[in-house]
Amino acid sequence: MNTIYTKFQQGHFIFAGPCALEEYSIALEVAQTVREVAEKHHLTAVFKSSFDKANRTSAKGFRGHGMAKGLEWLAKIKEETGLPIVTDIHLPEQAEPVAEVADVLQIPAFLCRQTDLLEAAAKTKAVVNVKKGQFLAPWDMEQVKNKLQSFGKKEILLTERGASFGYNNLVVDFRSLPIMQKMGVPVLFDATHSVQIPGGQGTSSGGQREFIAALARAAAAAGVNGVFFETHPDPDRALCDGPNSLPLAKFEQMISELVQIWNIPSNF
């Protein structure tokens, strides 16, 4: 069993980082903060950032600096901070080379049912985290999990990131967390994409970051295994997903509140 996956099974954890790899200095600053906060609160942490944002609203949207440069930066961050890495893949041929650097391969929500992509990810050594599609019910993720297992993958995570609710809006049904946990895998709650307003700004997505903390606290109270945050030193200047990113200055307070909730005894 993958060592990092054992930690996911045994305790609470966080995935955090800037949406996209804009500049190495920004990514490293965030990673160092994530490591320091996680160590202070005795949490397992994974640094998240994307080398390519392939599903941008507009063709003019910032996607990243490409896979080669992105993997080089992620490898350096991993070496300098000691943090495991999670990053997205969009094509089957990306799985193997990305898994040479990343400890967790993330399947984007829009691609969560793509069989070839799931198979390629499953055949690597990495943990596979699949984000639940905005268009799926939580129980539909059972078949996604079954696909991965049929390809031999045991180290699986599932992530809730909101469900489509009319046009340009998402809503979170917190029943989805225990429903997916009953599938026998650790479950994350993506507190930042869940407040996204898809395509809400015409050529880009909007967001309501003022609701991140409330939703994250609710997920922790619901017993979620881990929480996912996109966080940036200056979200208003971020090149990707700024409107729904948590300001880095508020990251430690957010994690402190989650830990307090997770530590409340439960008889359920």
Automatic annotation (TrEMBL):
InterPro entries: Aldolase_TIM (IPR013785), DAHP1/KDSA (IPR006218), KDO8P_synthase (IPR006269). It is an enzyme of class 2 (transferase). Pfam families: DAHP_synth_1. It comes from the Bacteria. It is found in: Cytoplasm. SUPFAM superfamilies: Aldolase (SSF51569). The keyword Cytoplasm applies. Residues 13-257 form the DAHP synthetase I/KDSA domain. This is 2-dehydro-3-deoxyphosphooctonate aldolase. It comes from Taurinivorans muris. The gene is kdsA.
